[in-house]
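User: Run a structure prediction on this.
Assistant: Running it now.
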Amino acid sequence: MKEITEDISTLIRKEIELAKQELGTSVATKAKGAAILAVVAVMGFLMLIFLLLALRDGLDSFLWTWVADLATVGVLGIVALVAALIAKRKLATPIKADMTKKTIKEDVEWAKTLGKQ
């Protein structure tokens, strides 16, 4: 009985280690992706500023200045809406721990067989 208790204890510790490792890897990957996305966002923001200035100057040549400004704001609003929808979809993906779930199910089945012996 002592051996079985030690085996179960070891098994539980190993399951916890596996879960930590699996979730840690997944979180680290998401963190790296977020850091890269932050750099891209800053560069994209700077590009957007110059694009909007060019758009405003172009529209200003044949529209009133205030209409050109409003059109530029409209374009910026559409870009922001699209970016927000994309970000929402990307952040909605859950972090997976499939291996941990599988091994825990196997452990439960194994523990059930111990009681039948």
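The longest helix spans residues 2-60.
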